[in-house]
Amino acid sequence: MRKNSATRATPLKVAVLALPEVLTLDFGIPVQVLGRNTQGNYSVQTCSPGGLPVRATGGFSVLPDRGLELLDEVHTVIIPGFTTSREQLPAEVLTALIAAHKRGVRMVSICTGAFALAQAGILDGLRATTHWESTADLATLFPAVAVDENVLFVDNGQVLTSAGVAAGIDLCLHLVRSDFGAAQGNLTAKGIVSAPRREGTQSQFISHKPVKSPASQPADVSAAMEWAVRHMHQPITLGHIGAATALSERTLARRFELHAGIAPMKWLSAQRVERAKELLETTGAPIERIAASVGLGSGANFRTIFKKHTSLTPSQYRHAFGTRHAPGLID
Asked: Where's the HTH araC/xylS-type domain (predicted)?
């Protein structure tokens, strides 16, 4: 569908579907980005079941343009986040979404709008994302969906999903670039005073949390975790952890898998990356020093492992999430 001319002769029709307790900013993003800043390349209308007013976060209601019949006429359907996303949607909404998808309509979600696509079965077998606070629920409620919490958005071709809030802007700009080329995408970004491009593979900001914390584990597993974290700067092996906690390697691995749901060395690698994130955010220490302090070896090895976990290089992560700090200090 890409067309690089300044204005498309026939605008692409877009429906923004408002569901109960629609998130106000999520709802406004496609209306503003696609409807007002693309030189007429899109025709954006809003809709709801029955065309009725929809309660929005913030204590007011939005009055959509149309009912669900709008989905029969459009090129793209966008579903903004909504706070009632864990509740069952009405059959008429699911039927309309399924029918649109079968016709080849492009299906897009922002934030928890992904739950609507998942309820309709549209995300089955696909990689998808949502706001990082909701990824666990999405994965639990819809096990057929491959949920990825470490990206801003996922483009599966006909089906696209984004993380929360600002990631919806990134996804809308991605749609513009895909439909009308980079020049139009950059012009639209300028119009909304946004960075022209953030790759979909860039990591969401996720608050630091242990994969499984020692406090939630049996005494032997907890002791192994605590010892590993205290000594993470050293070249630790499974044998080292077992010897320090009087467990055989086989018993340690079995106990870890049973209670933490992850292999010991994978858990330790995740802990090292979490600590590295904290240091990148709060210190100006050189990459090589951070790598050594968390036990990830050389700077090159650190970059490889860090990017595997976050989809960002350490420098990109620091640029995105770092704060002003004292140079080079590591506690």
From this structure: 222-320
